[in-house]
Amino acid sequence: MSGVRLVPWAEDDLALLHRCNSAEMMAFLGGPVEPGALERRHQNYLELPWSGKGAMYRVDLEDGRAAGSVGHWLTEWRGEIVWETGWMVLPGFQGRGVATAAARAVIALLRETGGPRYLHAYPVVGNAASNAVCRSAGFTSRGECDFEYPPGTRIRCHDWRVDLDRPAVHEVTADQHGRPRH
After folding, report:
1. Which one, out of 56, 90, 106, 114, has a CA that is 20 to 30 A from the CA of 4?
2. Tens of pLDDT along 10-41?
3. DSSP helix/strand/coil, 151
4. Which pLDDT score, from 0 to 100, does residue 178 have?
5. How far apart (Å, rounded) are the C-alpha atoms in residues 132 and 92?
6. Using the 8-state DSSP alphabet, how is residue 177 labeled?
7. Does the reported pTM lie above 0.85?
8. 124 closest CA partner among 10, 39, 26, 54
9. Strand 173-174 and strand 140-148: pairing?
10. Cα 96 from chain centroid?
11. Which residues lie closer than 8 Å to 181 by C-beta, 6 or more apart?
12. Residues 46 and 30: beta-carbon distance below 8 Å
């Protein structure tokens, strides 16, 4: 799947957020949240770009169907300000490369716009699909770590990182002897 488009989060995307708030979709994120918390999350998504601290996007397929969401936001990790990212893909679109394409699009966007050097993702250790997305999208594993999500709940995650100042692996070229050239 190569054809995804990131569309800035809009008022109408509350319906997508409701579709993502299922037991299946929220299994690794503490379970579904009550409607009031979902409304607050939606408002936070709408306000995020105006804060200068990140952005959320609806992930659309080439045919215009909404397949999920992806975002990036500033966070402090081990004494450093970094970008964090996360994604959700609706069950009918999972396993088709949508999340990987969305994660790669966020990486490309952040390489163009600047900010902190590193982008991290913290999928739960048992979330094989999201950990596979990280591998496929070009993140490097930094091992397991403890993370707090939702607030007040400790979970065991993988710390995946992309160095936004370095070209993606597929962007590295070689000289006539096959040696990498940056």
Report:
1. 114
2. 999 999 999 998 878 887 777 788 889 899 99
3. coil
4. 41
5. 18
6. T
7. yes
8. 26
9. unpaired
10. 16
11. 172, 173, 174, 175
12. no
